[in-house]
Structure formats: C-alpha cells, structure tokens
Specification:
Length: 171
C-alpha cells in the first residue's frame, strides 16, 4: 500500500488469519484500493483492530498464542508497509485477547485486553523507545467485580482516553 493511505478496515477472514485492506482517496473524492497486508503465519486474528497514526500502522492479532495476543507495528517506507515492531505485554496471559482495541494518546499506545483476569479486562499503556515500545502501566476497572470486558473499546483525544467495559451490567 502507499504511504499516507487510509486504513478503512481490518477484518478477520477464514476464522483464523486475517488481512488488512488499505485505501486512499482519489482526486474525485472516492476511495481506491491501495494495497493489502496479509497475516504473518503466527498472527491469528490479524486485523481484529487497526490504528493508522501518521507513518505507523498498528495491527492486532488477539487470537495469537492461546489468545494471549500481540500487536504488530508497520511503517510506511515509500513503496509499502514494512513490519518494524511486535508489541506484547511484559507478562503474556493466555485468553487475555491483547489487541482487541487500539488507541493513541500523545506518546502512548493503548492496547485493550478485555478477556484478561476472568474477562474483567485491562488496558496496557506503552511508550515509544528507540528500540520499540515499553510497557508503562496496566489500567483496570477498579469497580469491576466480574466479567465486564474492560478494554473492549478504546478512543483517545486531547490527552484523554475513554475505555469501554460493555458487559458491566450483564452479569
């Protein structure tokens, strides 16, 4: 795909691996295909969540390694996208779903893991370093007493982040 192309959707296909389709606007205002990223062999659920931020494209694969999950960072290189970092939490937990949601706030990359801790969920905050990404904090819902899936949705703007726990009143 071309640098500057907008990502308008990643999807899980074939139930295991996925793809990320890249699009960019044409002169007439319509969106045109600009490439596609295929899942690496070890990235189950590739494209479950995507985040395009300047020259960086973050693609999650939350079903990788017993659903522990991971996030791959790609950089635009003038002719396409090249993988540059694999982001995982310091302590990988099976069934966490790390990568179910992605957001950026300033220098932080936020990654949802809504199935962690019996589906109570968590959000990991990472900061960029010269060699990749460093885990800075794990956010949890202090009021969660059961499976709320905290971290299933993330949105960031102006130095704030909104984190959803969509099942808080379900159980």
């Amino acid at each position: 795909g071309a640098p500057g192309a907008a990502d308008v959707g990643g999807r899980v296909s074939d139930g295991v691996t996925g793809t990320v389709a890249l699009y960019q606007p044409a002169a007439d205002g319509t969106w045109r295909a600009a490439g596609q990223l295929q899942a690496p062999a070890d990235a189950a659920g590739f494209g479950f969540a995507v985040l395009l931020d300047g020259p960086s494209l973050f693609v999650s694969a939350p079903h990788t390694t017993s659903n522990a999950g991971l996030v791959l960072e790609y950089q635009a290189d003038g002719t396409g996208w090249r993988p540059v970092h694999t982001i995982v939490p310091t302590r990988r937990l099976a069934q966490a779903g790390f990568g179910a949601a992605l957001a950026r706030s300033g220098a932080s990359l936020l990654v949802g893991a809504p199935s962690q801790a019996g589906r109570s969920g968590a959000v990991y905050a990472f900061t960029a370093t010269p060699s990749g990404w460093s885990e800075q904090q794990v956010l949890t819902d202090a009021d969660a007493t059961s499976a709320v899936f905290f971290g299933r949705g993330l949105s960031a703007s102006d130095g704030r982040v909104a984190i959803s726990g969509p099942m808080a009143d379900f159980w």
